[in-house]
TrEMBL record:
Domain Regulatory protein YycH: 3-427
Pfam families per the UniProt record, alphabetical: YycH
UniProt-listed CDD domains: YycH_N (cd15787)
Protein name per its UniProtKB record: Regulatory protein YycH domain-containing protein
Superkingdom of the organism of origin: Bacteria
Amino acid sequence: MKERLKTVILTLLVAVSLVQSYLLIYRLPGTGSVVVSSSGYVRTDEMGEQRSVEDTLYPDRMIIHMGEDRHTIFYPDSAFYKLIYTRIQARDFASFQVQPVTAADWTEIASDNPGIELSFGSGLPVPLLQKTMRLSADAAFETANIDRIWIYTGSGEEKPRAFFFSSNGQTVYEAKQLDLTVQDVLQHVAFGEEWTPYTPLKSYTLYVPSKPIVLAESVLETDAFTSEQMQRNLFADPAVTRNIHEQDGSEIYTDSKRSLQIEDDGRWMTYTDPAAVPVIGANATESVLSAVDFINQHGGWNGTYRAELPEEGTGGRDSDLNVRFQQYYGSLPVLGSGTVRYGYMNLILQQGTVSFYERSLLETPEEGEQGLQHTLPGGQELIDRITKIEDVHGLKVTNFYPAYMPRMNGDKLRLVPIWAAELSDSTTITFN
């Protein structure tokens, strides 16, 4: 009996010893489970949510052309936007035929023909677009960068036509095979009949609402990721990092190779890895995929974001590639400023390796409390305001949309509705 009891006690002691050894080898004191990623970083905390690349690929707006020069706009997350885009995603587009953009009068088409125009900002490479739409790309089309898709039905035509516009402004690809019917297009267009009418400007490149828009600001409770959490997520061995206090109140953590800077009272972080390999032929599609994986492993997503790539000709597309994820609250983008940096994540990648990563550390709920209502101008008042902006700055307004401006009120974040006007030099002017 005594020998059996000794055996049981000895077995328990061996088991406890093995558990302790495992904890000492594979865990850091006071942390959660440790997972080492393939890139050599350590993921230790379940922080923000995980996202797939498909979650970040969608149009920034949907222009509905209703014929007789009537138009409206649906923005992301609105009911009609989601319904129409989901249906288009389920359709097949194939047999792409290239032609110069000057082969058609697009102003006349927008004025006279019912159709749906999807805007993808500065554009997406076709391989990325294929992740969110069913496109059978041939050799010529698969190398394109698409910033607009336009599906319309002409008078007397038996089937609709679908055009994919290259962001170079010179080329358009028509999908000769598509499984959309004229009735499909007319049904989608009919959703815009009772919506706010928009007036086209500048050869139908800008649209302004014909009347003022009333939007409520949102007030969000905030929490924040800690510097300790980010250290454990970004450094292979947080124990060897050292802290440097800056005179402006920011803090820098470094392991002599990488650095993490925490600013704005712990609300913003900037990470740099100067040891990243030199860039050789940056690939936009691979860079976006790598950026999404990196964020999933190092902080996660604290909201809804849309991927944005640099415009062609700006130097970012073929050198060290900048991938920006614009945050959305509801249907509108959140435009951070020098006062409150919030609303985007920015990464620079070199051959799939992140050399620069900046983001907000604020955590907010998906929905906040409704705050004050704001009336944004429309109609002629808004047109006059756009003209004045161009006169004052000596630049053309190339894009125009409603957005939210973040403002801190203690521990609460206020999202205030504004108009945003993008100028031809890529700067943005906001007003309400």
